[in-house]
UniProtKB/TrEMBL annotation:
Pfam families: Phage_AlpA. NCBIfam families: excise. This is AlpA family phage regulatory protein. Gene3D superfamilies: 1.10.238.160. GO terms for molecular function: DNA binding. InterPro entries: AlpA, DNA-bd_dom_put_sf, SinI_DNA-bd. Residues 58-91 are annotated as: Disordered.
């Protein structure tokens, strides 16, 4: 069986598609600068994938280059202490 094309995406997925944070997408929706979500059930909403893609394609071209750190994520702290050379040798 083939996978049908998805029609709706979650807030987090919509934000990832357009390279924005979820809170920025919510702010743009409040300002009516981003497609509004659709009611899928009593307590569930989703964004039409087509509308999110159309919004992204309608953005004006930029004359500015992105800064060098754009898209670079900070490494997550694992919570464990890094192992030093002394620790590995049993000193």
């Amino acid at each position: 069986m083939t996978n049908p094309k998805r029609l709706y995406v979650t807030l987090e997925e919509a934000a990832e598609i357009v390279s924005l944070s979820a809170s920025t997408v919510q702010e743009l929706v409040r300002k009516k600068d981003f497609p509004a979500p659709r009611m899928l059930s009593g307590r569930r909403v989703g964004w039409l994938l087509r509308e999110v893609e159309e919004w992204a394609e309608s953005r004006p071209l930029s004359d500015l280059l992105p800064p060098p750190n754009t898209g670079a994520k900070k490494p997550r702290f694992s919570g464990s202490k890094p192992v030093s050379q002394d620790d590995r040798q049993g000193a």
